[in-house]
Amino acid sequence: MIDDLTVSESTVRTACGDVALPEMGVLEQRWETDPIPPESVAAEAAAAVGDLELEEVPAGGEVAVGAGSRGIANLPEIVGGVVAGLQERGYEPFVFPAMGSHGGATAEGQREKLATLGVTEEAIGCEIRATMDVVTVGETPERGVPVYADAHAVEADAIVPVNRIKPHTDFSGDVESGLSKMLVIGMGKQRGAKMAHDWAVDWSLRNMLPEITGQLLEALPVAGGVAIVEDQLDETTRLEGVAPSGFLEREAELLEEAWDLMPKLPFEELDVLVVDRLGKDVSGQGMDTNVTGRRHFTIDEPEPETADVKRIFARGFTEKTKGNAMGMGQADFAHRDVLAGLDWSKSLINAITASTVRGVRLPPVVETDRAGLIASLGTIGPVPGEEARVLRATDTMRLKRCYASAPLVEAARDREDLRVVSEPTPVEFDGNGDFAASSPE
User: Fold this and answer.
1) Of the candidates 155, 165, 186, which has an alpha carbon nearest to the alpha carbon of residue 66?
2) What domains sit in the chain, N to C, each tagged with a CATH number?
3) Which domain of life is it from (predicted)?
4) 409-440 CB burial, b ≥16 within 10 A, e <16
Protein backbone atom coordinates (compact mmCIF):
# COMPACT_ATOMS: atom_id res chain seq x y z
CA MET A 1 0.00 0.00 0.00
CA ILE A 2 2.86 2.36 0.76
CA ASP A 3 4.21 2.09 -2.76
CA ASP A 4 0.73 2.62 -4.22
CA LEU A 5 0.42 5.95 -2.39
CA THR A 6 3.97 7.14 -3.04
CA VAL A 7 4.84 9.33 -6.02
CA SER A 8 8.14 8.42 -7.63
CA GLU A 9 10.95 10.88 -8.11
CA SER A 10 10.73 10.48 -11.86
CA THR A 11 7.06 11.48 -11.80
CA VAL A 12 7.88 14.55 -9.72
CA ARG A 13 10.65 15.50 -12.17
CA THR A 14 8.27 15.11 -15.10
CA ALA A 15 5.69 17.33 -13.44
CA CYS A 16 8.09 20.03 -12.24
CA GLY A 17 10.51 20.10 -15.13
CA ASP A 18 14.07 21.29 -14.72
CA VAL A 19 14.26 22.67 -11.17
CA ALA A 20 17.60 23.94 -9.90
CA LEU A 21 18.41 22.99 -6.32
CA PRO A 22 19.80 25.67 -4.00
CA GLU A 23 23.15 25.43 -2.29
CA MET A 24 22.83 25.14 1.48
CA GLY A 25 24.97 26.35 4.37
CA VAL A 26 24.47 26.23 8.14
CA LEU A 27 23.21 29.08 10.33
CA GLU A 28 23.11 29.32 14.10
CA GLN A 29 20.81 31.51 16.17
CA ARG A 30 22.50 33.36 19.01
CA TRP A 31 20.39 33.02 22.15
CA GLU A 32 21.16 34.15 25.67
CA THR A 33 19.87 31.52 28.09
CA ASP A 34 20.03 30.98 31.84
CA PRO A 35 18.77 27.42 32.52
CA ILE A 36 18.50 25.76 35.90
CA PRO A 37 21.50 23.42 36.28
CA PRO A 38 20.31 19.84 35.69
CA GLU A 39 21.60 18.75 39.07
CA SER A 40 19.42 21.39 40.75
CA VAL A 41 16.14 20.72 38.92
CA ALA A 42 14.74 18.14 41.37
CA ALA A 43 15.54 20.31 44.38
CA GLU A 44 13.91 23.38 42.82
CA ALA A 45 10.82 21.34 41.95
CA ALA A 46 10.63 20.16 45.54
CA ALA A 47 11.01 23.76 46.76
CA ALA A 48 8.14 24.88 44.49
CA VAL A 49 5.81 22.69 46.54
CA GLY A 50 6.25 25.21 49.36
CA ASP A 51 4.24 27.77 47.39
CA LEU A 52 1.17 25.56 47.09
CA GLU A 53 -1.87 25.79 49.36
CA LEU A 54 -1.68 22.52 51.29
CA GLU A 55 -2.91 23.74 54.69
CA GLU A 56 -6.26 21.96 54.33
CA VAL A 57 -4.66 18.60 53.45
CA PRO A 58 -4.59 16.29 56.49
CA ALA A 59 -1.31 14.81 57.65
CA GLY A 60 -0.61 11.70 55.59
CA GLY A 61 -3.23 12.77 53.04
CA GLU A 62 -3.07 11.62 49.43
CA VAL A 63 -2.01 14.15 46.81
CA ALA A 64 -2.68 13.40 43.13
CA VAL A 65 0.14 14.76 40.98
CA GLY A 66 -0.82 15.22 37.32
CA ALA A 67 1.83 14.44 34.69
CA GLY A 68 1.27 14.82 30.97
CA SER A 69 2.47 13.38 27.68
CA ARG A 70 4.60 16.24 26.39
CA GLY A 71 8.34 16.07 25.74
CA ILE A 72 9.26 18.32 28.66
CA ALA A 73 12.92 18.63 29.58
CA ASN A 74 13.86 16.99 32.87
CA LEU A 75 10.32 15.69 33.33
CA PRO A 76 11.24 12.69 35.53
CA GLU A 77 13.39 14.93 37.73
CA ILE A 78 10.66 17.57 38.00
CA VAL A 79 7.87 15.13 38.80
CA GLY A 80 10.16 13.24 41.17
CA GLY A 81 11.11 16.50 42.86
CA VAL A 82 7.46 17.45 43.38
CA VAL A 83 6.79 13.98 44.78
CA ALA A 84 9.77 14.31 47.14
CA GLY A 85 8.65 17.77 48.22
CA LEU A 86 5.22 16.41 49.13
CA GLN A 87 6.69 13.43 50.95
CA GLU A 88 8.99 15.70 52.95
CA ARG A 89 5.91 17.56 54.15
CA GLY A 90 4.23 14.37 55.35
CA TYR A 91 1.88 13.66 52.44
CA GLU A 92 1.33 10.52 50.36
CA PRO A 93 1.60 11.51 46.69
CA PHE A 94 0.72 9.42 43.67
CA VAL A 95 1.03 10.34 40.00
CA PHE A 96 -1.82 10.08 37.53
CA PRO A 97 -1.60 10.55 33.73
CA ALA A 98 -3.25 13.87 32.87
CA MET A 99 -3.13 13.61 29.10
CA GLY A 100 -6.67 13.50 27.73
CA SER A 101 -6.90 10.87 25.01
CA HIS A 102 -3.19 10.33 24.44
CA GLY A 103 -1.71 6.85 24.68
CA GLY A 104 -4.47 5.44 22.50
CA ALA A 105 -7.10 6.51 25.09
CA THR A 106 -6.30 3.51 27.30
CA ALA A 107 -5.00 3.39 30.86
CA GLU A 108 -2.13 1.11 29.93
CA GLY A 109 -1.31 3.23 26.91
CA GLN A 110 -1.08 6.31 29.10
CA ARG A 111 1.12 4.51 31.61
CA GLU A 112 3.37 3.45 28.74
CA LYS A 113 3.40 7.03 27.44
CA LEU A 114 4.72 8.24 30.79
CA ALA A 115 7.33 5.49 30.74
CA THR A 116 8.62 6.62 27.34
CA LEU A 117 9.18 10.04 28.93
CA GLY A 118 11.09 8.49 31.83
CA VAL A 119 8.26 8.85 34.34
CA THR A 120 8.16 5.44 36.02
CA GLU A 121 7.41 4.50 39.60
CA GLU A 122 11.08 3.72 40.15
CA ALA A 123 12.17 7.09 38.74
CA ILE A 124 9.72 9.28 40.66
CA GLY A 125 9.50 7.37 43.93
CA CYS A 126 5.74 6.82 44.16
CA GLU A 127 2.81 4.90 42.71
CA ILE A 128 1.32 5.69 39.29
CA ARG A 129 -2.43 5.23 39.11
CA ALA A 130 -3.73 5.14 35.57
CA THR A 131 -7.40 4.98 34.61
CA MET A 132 -9.67 6.34 31.90
CA ASP A 133 -12.59 6.51 34.34
CA VAL A 134 -13.87 9.99 35.08
CA VAL A 135 -16.31 11.60 37.49
CA THR A 136 -18.66 14.44 36.56
CA VAL A 137 -17.85 17.16 39.08
CA GLY A 138 -20.10 19.95 37.79
CA GLU A 139 -21.23 21.88 34.75
CA THR A 140 -20.73 25.37 33.38
CA PRO A 141 -23.43 27.84 34.45
CA GLU A 142 -24.63 29.23 31.12
CA ARG A 143 -24.08 26.39 28.66
CA GLY A 144 -24.47 23.45 31.02
CA VAL A 145 -21.29 21.82 29.72
CA PRO A 146 -20.31 18.85 31.94
CA VAL A 147 -16.99 19.06 33.73
CA TYR A 148 -15.04 15.80 34.10
CA ALA A 149 -12.08 14.76 36.22
CA ASP A 150 -9.91 11.66 36.62
CA ALA A 151 -11.56 9.27 39.10
CA HIS A 152 -8.36 8.69 41.08
CA ALA A 153 -7.64 12.42 41.30
CA VAL A 154 -11.14 13.17 42.57
CA GLU A 155 -10.66 10.73 45.45
CA ALA A 156 -7.42 12.39 46.61
CA ASP A 157 -7.13 14.96 49.38
CA ALA A 158 -5.38 17.38 47.01
CA ILE A 159 -4.55 17.71 43.31
CA VAL A 160 -1.35 19.24 41.92
CA PRO A 161 -0.89 19.44 38.13
CA VAL A 162 2.69 19.70 36.84
CA ASN A 163 2.99 21.17 33.37
CA ARG A 164 4.93 23.42 31.03
CA ILE A 165 3.54 26.84 30.20
CA LYS A 166 3.75 27.58 26.48
CA PRO A 167 1.81 29.05 23.56
CA HIS A 168 -0.82 26.63 22.29
CA THR A 169 -0.87 25.37 18.73
CA ASP A 170 -4.64 25.56 18.20
CA PHE A 171 -5.69 28.90 19.68
CA SER A 172 -4.50 32.15 21.25
CA GLY A 173 -5.71 33.51 24.58
CA ASP A 174 -4.69 34.78 27.99
CA VAL A 175 -4.25 31.17 29.12
CA GLU A 176 -3.10 28.56 26.64
CA SER A 177 -1.06 25.38 27.20
CA GLY A 178 -0.24 24.87 30.86
CA LEU A 179 -1.77 24.18 34.25
CA SER A 180 -5.34 25.16 33.41
CA LYS A 181 -5.39 23.14 30.21
CA MET A 182 -4.04 20.13 32.10
CA LEU A 183 -6.89 20.39 34.59
CA VAL A 184 -9.61 20.81 31.98
CA ILE A 185 -8.44 18.53 29.18
CA GLY A 186 -5.63 16.38 30.58
CA MET A 187 -7.36 15.49 33.85
CA GLY A 188 -10.66 15.11 32.00
CA LYS A 189 -9.22 12.11 30.14
CA GLN A 190 -10.76 11.14 26.81
CA ARG A 191 -14.29 12.23 27.75
CA GLY A 192 -13.17 15.59 29.06
CA ALA A 193 -10.86 16.20 26.13
CA LYS A 194 -13.57 15.30 23.64
CA MET A 195 -16.10 17.48 25.45
CA ALA A 196 -13.75 20.46 25.49
CA HIS A 197 -12.81 20.20 21.84
CA ASP A 198 -16.41 19.63 20.76
CA TRP A 199 -17.55 22.78 22.50
CA ALA A 200 -14.48 24.68 21.32
CA VAL A 201 -15.95 24.61 17.81
CA ASP A 202 -18.54 27.19 18.89
CA TRP A 203 -17.15 28.47 22.18
CA SER A 204 -13.36 28.54 21.63
CA LEU A 205 -10.81 27.16 24.04
CA ARG A 206 -9.63 30.69 24.77
CA ASN A 207 -12.97 31.32 26.50
CA MET A 208 -13.64 27.82 27.76
CA LEU A 209 -10.41 27.10 29.64
CA PRO A 210 -10.68 29.94 32.18
CA GLU A 211 -14.35 29.21 32.91
CA ILE A 212 -13.98 25.47 33.38
CA THR A 213 -10.77 25.96 35.33
CA GLY A 214 -12.75 28.11 37.72
CA GLN A 215 -15.34 25.35 38.04
CA LEU A 216 -12.66 22.78 38.85
CA LEU A 217 -10.96 25.01 41.40
CA GLU A 218 -14.30 25.38 43.22
CA ALA A 219 -15.31 21.72 42.99
CA LEU A 220 -12.02 19.97 43.73
CA PRO A 221 -9.19 20.34 46.26
CA VAL A 222 -6.68 21.74 43.79
CA ALA A 223 -3.75 22.89 45.92
CA GLY A 224 -2.15 24.72 43.01
CA GLY A 225 0.25 23.58 40.35
CA VAL A 226 3.92 23.50 39.50
CA ALA A 227 4.58 25.56 36.38
CA ILE A 228 7.52 24.94 34.08
CA VAL A 229 8.98 27.45 31.64
CA GLU A 230 11.61 26.40 29.11
CA ASP A 231 14.06 28.49 27.12
CA GLN A 232 14.90 28.45 23.40
CA LEU A 233 17.02 25.32 23.88
CA ASP A 234 14.18 23.48 25.62
CA GLU A 235 16.00 23.61 28.91
CA THR A 236 14.24 24.27 32.21
CA THR A 237 14.57 27.95 33.06
CA ARG A 238 11.81 28.38 35.67
CA LEU A 239 10.01 26.13 38.16
CA GLU A 240 7.30 27.84 40.16
CA GLY A 241 4.58 26.77 42.51
CA VAL A 242 1.35 28.56 41.59
CA ALA A 243 -1.34 28.76 44.26
CA PRO A 244 -4.98 28.32 43.13
CA SER A 245 -5.84 31.82 44.32
CA GLY A 246 -3.66 33.26 41.54
CA PHE A 247 -3.96 30.43 39.07
CA LEU A 248 -5.24 32.13 35.92
CA GLU A 249 -3.56 35.49 36.48
CA ARG A 250 -0.09 34.09 37.14
CA GLU A 251 -0.36 31.58 34.32
CA ALA A 252 -1.13 34.42 31.91
CA GLU A 253 2.04 36.22 33.05
CA LEU A 254 4.14 33.09 32.63
CA LEU A 255 2.67 32.59 29.15
CA GLU A 256 4.09 35.95 28.08
CA GLU A 257 7.50 34.89 29.35
CA ALA A 258 7.23 31.54 27.57
CA TRP A 259 6.34 33.26 24.29
CA ASP A 260 9.43 35.46 24.50
CA LEU A 261 11.63 32.44 25.16
CA MET A 262 10.22 29.90 22.71
CA PRO A 263 12.40 29.03 19.69
CA LYS A 264 11.29 30.57 16.40
CA LEU A 265 12.40 30.42 12.80
CA PRO A 266 15.27 32.83 12.06
CA PHE A 267 13.30 34.23 9.11
CA GLU A 268 9.60 35.12 8.91
CA GLU A 269 9.29 34.59 5.15
CA LEU A 270 10.37 31.33 3.53
CA ASP A 271 9.75 29.65 0.21
CA VAL A 272 10.37 26.15 1.56
CA LEU A 273 10.68 24.76 5.07
CA VAL A 274 12.00 21.21 5.39
CA VAL A 275 11.18 19.61 8.75
CA ASP A 276 13.08 16.43 9.48
CA ARG A 277 10.66 15.10 12.06
CA LEU A 278 7.31 15.80 13.63
CA GLY A 279 5.89 14.34 16.81
CA LYS A 280 3.70 14.84 19.85
CA ASP A 281 6.84 15.24 21.98
CA VAL A 282 7.78 18.21 19.77
CA SER A 283 4.37 19.85 19.78
CA GLY A 284 0.75 18.92 20.30
CA GLN A 285 0.35 19.44 16.56
CA GLY A 286 3.51 17.59 15.56
CA MET A 287 4.94 20.84 14.21
CA ASP A 288 4.37 23.92 16.35
CA THR A 289 1.92 26.16 14.52
CA ASN A 290 3.42 29.19 16.26
CA VAL A 291 6.62 28.34 14.36
CA THR A 292 5.17 27.29 11.00
CA GLY A 293 2.45 29.96 10.95
CA ARG A 294 -0.14 27.37 9.89
CA ARG A 295 -3.32 26.79 11.86
CA HIS A 296 -5.70 26.22 8.97
CA PHE A 297 -6.96 22.92 10.39
CA THR A 298 -8.68 24.57 13.37
CA ILE A 299 -12.18 26.04 13.46
CA ASP A 300 -12.92 29.69 14.16
CA GLU A 301 -9.34 30.42 15.18
CA PRO A 302 -7.11 32.99 13.45
CA GLU A 303 -3.79 32.05 11.91
CA PRO A 304 -0.63 33.04 13.82
CA GLU A 305 0.82 36.37 12.73
CA THR A 306 4.06 34.69 11.65
CA ALA A 307 5.63 32.93 9.84
CA ASP A 308 4.82 33.03 6.12
CA VAL A 309 5.96 29.72 4.58
CA LYS A 310 4.94 28.77 1.05
CA ARG A 311 5.75 25.04 1.22
CA ILE A 312 6.52 22.57 4.03
CA PHE A 313 8.14 19.20 3.38
CA ALA A 314 7.91 16.76 6.32
CA ARG A 315 10.41 13.92 6.38
CA GLY A 316 9.54 11.65 9.30
CA PHE A 317 8.60 11.16 12.97
CA THR A 318 10.25 11.27 16.34
CA GLU A 319 10.56 7.91 18.03
CA LYS A 320 8.54 8.99 21.06
CA THR A 321 5.47 9.98 19.05
CA LYS A 322 4.84 6.28 18.37
CA GLY A 323 3.31 6.94 14.96
CA ASN A 324 0.89 9.66 16.08
CA ALA A 325 0.84 11.82 12.95
CA MET A 326 -1.15 14.72 14.36
CA GLY A 327 -0.06 17.84 12.50
CA MET A 328 1.09 16.22 9.29
CA GLY A 329 -1.79 18.04 7.61
CA GLN A 330 0.28 21.21 7.89
CA ALA A 331 2.77 19.82 5.38
CA ASP A 332 2.43 20.21 1.62
CA PHE A 333 4.55 17.13 0.88
CA ALA A 334 5.64 14.16 2.98
CA HIS A 335 8.47 11.64 2.63
CA ARG A 336 7.43 8.00 2.29
CA ASP A 337 8.87 7.46 5.81
CA VAL A 338 5.92 9.47 7.15
CA LEU A 339 3.45 7.12 5.50
CA ALA A 340 5.44 4.06 6.58
CA GLY A 341 5.71 5.20 10.20
CA LEU A 342 2.26 6.55 10.99
CA ASP A 343 -0.22 4.82 13.26
CA TRP A 344 -3.64 5.63 11.83
CA SER A 345 -5.49 4.50 14.96
CA LYS A 346 -3.57 6.74 17.38
CA SER A 347 -3.65 9.61 14.92
CA LEU A 348 -7.38 9.42 14.32
CA ILE A 349 -8.26 9.06 18.01
CA ASN A 350 -6.24 12.17 18.76
CA ALA A 351 -7.72 14.07 15.80
CA ILE A 352 -11.34 13.19 16.58
CA THR A 353 -10.91 13.99 20.26
CA ALA A 354 -9.38 17.37 19.42
CA SER A 355 -11.84 18.09 16.58
CA THR A 356 -8.89 18.80 14.30
CA VAL A 357 -9.28 16.02 11.76
CA ARG A 358 -7.72 18.15 9.03
CA GLY A 359 -4.54 18.03 11.06
CA VAL A 360 -4.01 14.38 10.10
CA ARG A 361 -4.74 14.71 6.41
CA LEU A 362 -2.05 12.87 4.49
CA PRO A 363 -0.14 15.21 2.15
CA PRO A 364 1.14 13.99 -1.22
CA VAL A 365 3.80 11.37 -0.48
CA VAL A 366 7.12 11.34 -2.36
CA GLU A 367 9.66 8.56 -2.36
CA THR A 368 12.85 10.58 -1.68
CA ASP A 369 14.14 13.79 -0.14
CA ARG A 370 15.24 14.93 -3.57
CA ALA A 371 11.69 14.44 -4.88
CA GLY A 372 10.28 16.36 -1.92
CA LEU A 373 12.65 19.26 -2.44
CA ILE A 374 11.97 19.38 -6.19
CA ALA A 375 8.20 19.22 -5.65
CA SER A 376 8.37 22.01 -3.08
CA LEU A 377 10.55 24.26 -5.23
CA GLY A 378 8.45 23.49 -8.29
CA THR A 379 5.30 24.90 -6.67
CA ILE A 380 6.44 28.20 -5.13
CA GLY A 381 5.86 30.33 -8.19
CA PRO A 382 8.37 31.98 -10.54
CA VAL A 383 11.29 31.77 -8.12
CA PRO A 384 14.48 30.16 -9.50
CA GLY A 385 15.63 27.32 -7.27
CA GLU A 386 19.02 28.89 -6.61
CA GLU A 387 17.27 32.05 -5.38
CA ALA A 388 14.73 30.32 -3.18
CA ARG A 389 14.63 30.96 0.56
CA VAL A 390 14.94 27.39 1.87
CA LEU A 391 15.44 26.33 5.47
CA ARG A 392 15.87 22.80 6.84
CA ALA A 393 15.32 22.19 10.57
CA THR A 394 15.45 19.14 12.81
CA ASP A 395 11.96 19.94 14.14
CA THR A 396 10.05 23.01 15.25
CA MET A 397 11.45 22.78 18.78
CA ARG A 398 15.13 22.51 17.84
CA LEU A 399 15.93 25.60 15.81
CA LYS A 400 19.29 26.77 17.06
CA ARG A 401 21.05 25.39 13.98
CA CYS A 402 19.44 25.11 10.57
CA TYR A 403 20.53 24.43 7.02
CA ALA A 404 19.86 27.56 4.97
CA SER A 405 20.00 28.38 1.26
CA ALA A 406 22.44 30.96 -0.10
CA PRO A 407 20.01 33.93 -0.04
CA LEU A 408 19.31 33.31 3.65
CA VAL A 409 23.01 32.95 4.43
CA GLU A 410 23.64 36.29 2.76
CA ALA A 411 20.86 37.92 4.75
CA ALA A 412 22.26 36.46 7.97
CA ARG A 413 25.60 38.20 7.56
CA ASP A 414 24.04 41.53 8.53
CA ARG A 415 22.28 40.23 11.64
CA GLU A 416 23.81 40.10 15.11
CA ASP A 417 21.40 37.36 16.23
CA LEU A 418 22.67 34.93 13.56
CA ARG A 419 26.03 33.33 12.88
CA VAL A 420 27.13 31.68 9.64
CA VAL A 421 28.56 28.32 10.65
CA SER A 422 29.35 27.03 7.17
CA GLU A 423 29.12 28.45 3.67
CA PRO A 424 26.61 27.17 1.11
CA THR A 425 27.56 24.08 -0.88
CA PRO A 426 25.57 21.84 -3.23
CA VAL A 427 23.07 19.57 -1.50
CA GLU A 428 24.34 15.99 -1.42
CA PHE A 429 22.10 12.93 -1.61
CA ASP A 430 22.81 9.28 -0.85
CA GLY A 431 22.21 6.41 -3.23
CA ASN A 432 18.52 6.36 -2.37
CA GLY A 433 17.99 10.03 -3.19
CA ASP A 434 17.77 11.10 0.46
CA PHE A 435 19.80 13.82 2.18
CA ALA A 436 23.34 12.68 2.89
CA ALA A 437 23.72 15.22 5.71
CA SER A 438 22.13 14.40 9.07
CA SER A 439 19.72 16.70 10.89
CA PRO A 440 21.22 20.10 11.76
CA GLU A 441 20.83 19.43 15.53
Assistant:
1) 186
2) 3-32+264-426 (no CATH), 40-230 (3.40.50.11440)
3) Archaea
4) beebeeeeebebbeebeebebeeeebbeeebb
